[in-house]
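Shape matters. Shown next:

___
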Amino acid sequence: MLSLKKISRQQLIAAGVIVVGIVAGAVAGFFSISAAGLVPQNSADEPAAKDAPFVLPASPPVKKTVSPVTEDAAQLASKSAQKAEEELADQRMWEATAKQPLPPRKEPMTPPRWRVVGITSVGSVKSVLLLFENQPVTEARGIGDKLPGGAKIVDIAQDHLKIVLNGQTMKLNLRKQ
């Protein structure tokens, strides 16, 4: 429970000033809004012209009698609406499946899995040996050749391979660390 004995006189005065400021600000804000014309000041008997669509009628609307001709038109409209609803239900928009399968791609969207097996050199020509998944033989790639995934081989050394991918040069270490 709040004990007023623990609150100093200065704290009590400060709290009172804050409360008075809040009330004064709310009153000033209300008067400035009403002076700007944002709050309508109508009498209770006369609704504003701009609020006419939102004013409830004074008496309930009179129920009109329907002639047999308009009843037939209403039934016809109801039947056509039901027919349109059934057609939409038959389409099942959100459950549609592709009517024809997509054609197979010539190249896979992802490069095949591969790994660097080793480095060879014949004279001054160096090559990197790649082993692809599901292939029993290795492939040799030299400087200037492309690796799967689009990287280009820039330099081949005994312990590393330099490649360029998307304009960035990278060094792949080939030794176990």
